[in-house]
Each structure stands twice: as C-alpha cells, then as structure tokens.
Amino acid sequence: MPGENLSRDEARERAALLSVDGYEVFLDVRSATEEDASEPRTFRSVTTIRFRAAEPGAASFADLLAPSVTAVTLNGEELDPAVVFDGSRVTLPALRAENVLVVDAQCAYSRTGEGLHRFVDPEDGEVYLYTHYEPADARRVFANFEQPDLKAPFRFEVAAPESWTVWSNGAVESRDGDSRRFAVTKPISTYITAVVAGPYHYETDLYTRALPDGSTLEIPLGAMCRKSLAKHFDADDIFLVTKQGLDFFHDHFDYPYPFGKYDQAFVPEYNIGAMENPGCVTFREEFIFRGKVTQASYERRTNVILHEMAHMWFGDLVTMQWWDDLWLKESFADFMGSFSMVEATRFHNGWVTFANNRKAWAYRADQLPSTHPITADIRDLEDAKLNFDGITYAKGASVLKQLVSYAGRDAFLEGARRYFARHAYGSTRLGDLLSVLEETSGRDMAAWSRSWLETAGVNTLTPVATYDAEGRITELAVLQEGEEFRPHRVAVGLYRHEGPELVRYARAEVDVVGARTVLDELAGAERPALVLVNDDDLTYCKIRFDEGSLETLRSHLGAITDPLARALCWSALWNLTRDALMPARDFVTLAMDFAARESDIGVLQMVHAWARTALVHYAAPGWREEGGRLLSTCALRELRLTEPGSQHQLTWARFFAAAATTAADFQLLQGLLDGTAKIDGLDVDQELRWAFLEPLVAHGVADEAAVGAELARDDTASGRRHQVRCLAARPSAAVKDQAWAQVVESDALSNALVAATISGFVQSSQRELIAPYAEKYFAAIERVWAERSIQIGMDVVQGFFPGLQGDQATLDATDGWLSSHPAAPPALRRLVIEERDDLARALRAQQRDATRD
C-alpha cells in the first residue's frame, strides 16, 4: 500500500489551507457489463471540485487512486498528468483564492469491497455495483480531498446501462438517456458518499411525521437486494424497524432527519456489517436470510439498522474532524443502536445481548497490547482502518451506557440535542461534545473524560464479604484492580435459593472509587449464595466472584431467573477462563451442564462459541480428544431433547455440526443430508445442509464430488462461497497448497472468496496438516501487506496466523519475526502483535488446564 497513506499532520495542514465549496462527479459505469474487458476493468470518472485556498500561491494535493489519468485542469490550465499524478495524489501548484479543479481519470472496479465493487451473480449473470469508502476509498472512484473535515455538497451524475436503476445519496433529479443526475447533497464527508447501480430488486414505503410547526415530514423509504434474493427479502420487517427507529430518533433528538430519502441497499461481498451513507445506507446481504434463523439474527439486523440510522445524526450531520475522534460517531451509534432497539422495537432484551456479546468484544480488545483510549492517537489512514475495533465500538458504547447513568438520561439526550443544533453540517472534537454534556448534567465531564475516554484498560471488580456468627453480612466491599482506578456506578446484587430458583433479594447502588469501596447499605443482610457485582450491567468492568459465589455457579448457574444476571455470570466465567484463572475444561463442563437451560438465544450462541474456543485453544492438548467427545455427546443429547422446530433446536443443530467428532456423529450428519435420518422438527434447509456438509468434508467423510453435488442444488452466490470454503477444508496437503496459493500468491479471488478460502483452510482437526504454513506465513506477510489492498492484507495476516498450532515454537517464531522486522508498517506489526497475544493467552490457559487438579 505504498504512497496511499495520508497522515494526520498532512490532513491538518490541508484543512487549514483549503475549504471546499462543492463537487460535481460524473461516473460512466456502462463498461461494467462488457464481457471482454481488459484488465484492470475500468470506468471513466470526471470530477470537478470548486474550492478556496487561504494562502494564494500555496500548493496542495488531491487524492486519487486510479490506473490512469486522462486530463487534469486547474483554473483553466491543463496540467500534464504524467507530472502531477503519481498514482495516489494529484499535485496542485500555485493555488488561487478561488479554484476549479477538473480531473478526468480511468478508475478500476474493485473485487475487494473497497471503492466501486463489481459483482456478477452466478445465478443469472447480472452485474451489480456498489461503493464502500470508509475510511478513505472514495479516492478509488473520484478525485477528492479525502479527509472527514473537508465536507462539501456533492452532485453525482452516473451513466449506466439503460435497464439498470441507480441510487446515490440524493434523489434522482433528471435523466437523459443512460445518464442519471442526482440532487445536490447537504455538506457531507467524502467517505459517506455512495453509488449503488444494477438491476436490483427494489421495494418502497413512506415514513410520515407531523412536525411541531404544523408541517408534515415525509421520508421516502426504499430497500433493495439482488433479483435472485428477492424471494427471501422481508422488506416489510425492514421498513417496520426503519419507521420505529425514525420515530425514536425524532422523539429524542429534536432534529428532523436532514437527508431527504432513506434507501437501504443489501449488497453482495460486503466487507463490514453496514455503512451509514446518508440517504443510501449499504448492508451486507447476509442480513437477508435464505433459511430459518433464530430471533438473535433478526435482533442483530435490527440493531445494525438502528446503528446506521443513529449515524445520520452522529457522524453524518456532525462529523469528527479526524479519525482520533472516531468514537464520536461509532461509540454513539453502537450505544444508540441498542438503546433505541430496546425502547422502540420488539427486542426488549437487547441489553442482555449487549452485556454478553458486544462487551466480550470490548474486553478482548482492551486487554491486547494494542489497546488504546477511546479517543485514540490516529497517526494516519492505516491506523484509522485498524481502529474500527472493539474499543471504538463496544467499549465506547459501554462507557456511554454508564454515562447515561452518571449524567442522567434527560441530561444526556438534551446534550445530544444541543450538540446537533450547534454543529450541524460541521466537524467536531472531543471538547465540543463534553461542553454541552457539562452544561446539561452539571457534572465535571473533563474528569469523567480523563478516566474513561483518555485512558486504556479494563478494571476488575471483586466482592469481599465478612459475616457474623449468624451468617449475616458485617461488611461488603468491592475491590478495584487495574492500572488506573476509575469511578464506577455499580449495582451489587445478593442472590439466594428460593426452591429451585436463584433470585435476587437485595440490591444496592454505589459509586466505586479507588481500590476499596464499602457498601454500607447491605450490612446486616443474610448470607447470599451469590454476590453479583455490576448487577444490571451499569458499568464497564470485568467482575470476579468470591469462592462461595463461584461454587454456587458451578452447581446452580442455570437456576438464576433473571436473564441479564445470568448473561453477566456467563461473561464473567468466560473472562476467568481467558485469564487462565479457571481451567478450560471447567468452562466446557459448565456449558454442558447449563447451556440447555439458557432462555436467551443470543447468550446460548455465545456460550456455544466460547465452549468451542475453550476446547480448541485453551484446553490442555492431552484432554482435547476427550473433551471433544463430551461436547459432541452433549450437543447431540440436547438437539434431541430440545423442543422440535424451535430456534433452540436450530442452534443446537448448528453446534452439533461444529462439535461433531466421532464416526457416529458423521453418520448422523450424512443421514440428515441424504434423508435416511431424521430429528423431529428439524428442517434441514439449504443453509443447514452446508453447515452439516463442511465437517464431513473436513474429516474426509465427504469428498469433492459431494461438494459439487451440493453446489448443483445451490448454485448461487452464497452456494459458491460455501463451496469454496468446503473445498479448502479437505484434509489434503495438495488442497492446502492450492488454497494458500489462491489467496497469497494470486489476487484472482474476490474479497468474499478470500475469506471463504481462509475459513476452510484453518480447521482445528488439521493442525499437523497446516503446520508447515507457519514458516510460509512469516515469509509472506510483509509482501502481501505491501502489494494487496489493506482489507485483503488484514484478512491474510489475521486469518492465516498459525495460532491454531498453540505451541511455544509458534510463539517463538512470532517473536522472531517481530524482532527482525522493526521497520515493518506499524499497522501490520499491530495485527501480528495482537495475534501473538492471543496465542500467549492460549498457552497460559493450556498450562492452567493441565494443572487443574
């Protein structure tokens, strides 16, 4: 990625010099349907930028990543492209006070999900296009000033095949032949501009709302997907959630949605969950469900829809100046996604998922060597790309959830309203938000920010109780550990046995400060079976248990009646396992004993995932085989016992396939595929068929012919991804060589197929087979990082890391590469350091498990 990296210092210097009045962008994408196009396949891009310079005579540059530039004109003077364009930047010499730049370029269609992505549907041969830019890939589509604070109005014009429909941020204003002209946008950043084009299936609706001035706000709604997915498209539910979200944000933000229409495009081979392009939000099409899924999947989609909608205000209307303050949009959107979902939709238990799922991501990220404050130090675009992480999203959202308790709900929302009113269409820094929150709450937000936004790391809170002769509490204290003591508003719950149930009988809230805080309110309470710190999940912390509470959980975890409390206990037990304080096989045992009693489907899915990780990475190698048999036996037992046709049955079916390890397991899976076996109520639809086939292929029970036969049943884009993953999963040295070459030595595969190949390649049952690739990995990653896009680079560096070997030799090889490559790009080193930390954690956990007795 040489020459593509923009530094923060360069961006600040350019922002001080330039202000942008507007863009006019013309894209001719009619070449997308040509069958015999030369490589790289390109489209014409003509950009006109009107901008001002604070210092006439100064020089600057525009950003552009393109195979070639046909012409560059600055203030009417033609510049030699060979002189001013170096492949990533267009030099702009001798600027005037007012300037007009025109760049005519040939830009490349993408196969990596960055820039203008081109996809051919294998079902019907139709071509689909969409853009994705964050943080800085608009420059792959048109010349621009690629930094978030240089906002401007945009007018797009797109020439596309006559039969296609084209969408952008604004509504179509006119059409002349193949060319569509779109309305000028409000001032927005380059990274949230968007174009979607192709023969998409499109459904419409209308949102209306009466405004205080007596007028009516009307927002045209649209939702689209590929034609071949239309039969699975539940647009009515998407529109329902969209309207519920718009009602919620209008009720609480007091700033009408400012971007006109609201289209939502579900697009193929998307690298992330979704992107908040105003007026034209893009989502990964996996949110269109081809088969039966659990309510957790619908909840996740709802959360993402509302997350992106929150961005219309936090991020699009008001944008961070630079990526240091990425949290100003992502943390807020992550929090508001759950906040609005719980209060405005049918998913009232969303905070359970947040506590169990989202926070797990944050806890992992916050314990890596690369952890950083929520307000991060982002030196350049590569840093920015890697900071879309568990700190910026989930920890930031967790801290904001605490802030609502700290500042008060009304003060928090009033602060948001003032923030929008003062900074609409502008760019902000941390202090801009803190100032309004301080006004509305009366709290010292600077001190809160220093503790929670400007320092890294997670605190651990542990209860310590003493009792009198009658078994009543004489003192209950909460101990805080961590490099930095933070103020925590926490609830502490006391639980006791009532018949077969474990219920809360006392609760107190307290501000935990310093190393030790005493809860006077709970003195005199009867001895509890369980003390739960951070009950109701008010703060961001790891929690520990006293010995009595831990013994209670070992025998009665499933008896806790409150689903949020139960989820918090599962999360705490998993953190004990990751921290090598609980043997991995003990967590696996807890999962086998109590997962079947878990009512929340999202928590059940997380427990299944954690149990598999505990077995594969954290268990002592000598116990893995036995543990695998125990886990698969448990999965099959619960699959047969669970209510037929229920979402729990579907979840146990998928877990059984992932855990299958014996000949009998594989025989049952094969029988479920060919119809010779049946489990009452289990509908083996196409997605479940692929889930059953992959372990058969990985263990050598099914072959390439079986994969081909399954593809014949499902020759779709999703089917092709499953096929590629299954083929790479075959237990053959030749197969692994081919898969490695297809990803590392070639760029022929699209981003989606790269990810599928890596997923199939890395099989926990094939450690010995893939062991030789550890040396190849360290020999290749610096070259891959230099030659491929950052997305593919990340996929390779993270996906092929040989952590599955789980041994000291791999850790030593990682340390050897780090010590011998001190000058490797910082972003690359960060990824390797993170993988190294996960491996070191696994080795500590294996040692703890081996000394269990």
In brief:
By secondary structure, this protein is an alpha+beta fold.
Work out the number of β strands.
28
**Which residues form runs of ≥5 with pLDDT under 50?**
none
Strand content range: 15-25%
Q: End-to-end span in angstroms?
A: 51 Å
Share of residues in helices: 40-55%
Form type: globular
How would a textbook summarize the main sheet? 8 strands, mixed
Category from helices, strands and their pairing: alpha+beta
Helical element count?
28
Textual characterization of the structure:
The protein is of the alpha+beta class. About 45% of the residues lie in helices and about 20% in strands. It is built from 28 helices and 28 strands. An 8-stranded mixed beta sheet has the order 5-4-7-2-1-10-13-12. Helix 3 packs across helix 4 (about 295-310), helix 17 packs parallel to helix 19 and helix 20 packs antiparallel against helix 21 (about 715-730). The longest helix is centred in the C-terminal third of the chain and has 25 residues, at about 825-850. The mean pLDDT is about 95.
Question: What's the helix and strand layout?
Answer:
Elements: H1 8-17, E1 18-28, E2 42-53, E3 60-63, E4 68-74, E5 77-79, H2 81-84, E6 89-92, E7 98-108, E8 115-120, E9 127-132, E10 154-159, E11 165-168, E12 172-176, E13 179-182, E14 195-198, E15 201-210, E16 216-225, H3 235-253, E17 262-267, E18 274-275, E19 280-284, H4 295-311, E20 319-320, H5 327-344, H6 350-366, H7 381-386, H8 391-407, H9 409-423, E21 427-428, H10 430-441, H11 445-452, E22 460-467, E23 473-481, E24 488-498, E25 501-512, E26 516-518, E27 530-535, E28 542-543, H12 547-556, H13 563-578, H14 584-594, H15 601-618, H16 621-641, H17 647-659, H18 663-674, H19 686-698, H20 704-713, H21 717-728, H22 733-744, H23 751-761, H24 767-770, H25 773-787, H26 790-799, H27 808-820, H28 826-850
Parallel strand pairs: 1-10, 16-17, 17-19, 20-21, 22-28
Antiparallel strand pairs: 1-2, 2-7, 3-6, 4-5, 4-7, 8-9, 9-14, 10-13, 11-14, 12-13, 15-16, 18-19, 22-23, 23-26, 24-25, 24-27
Helix pairs in contact: 3-4, 3-5, 4-5, 5-8, 6-8, 6-13, 8-9, 9-10, 13-15, 14-15, 15-17, 16-17, 17-19, 18-19, 19-20, 19-21, 20-21, 21-23, 22-23, 23-26, 25-26, 26-28, 27-28
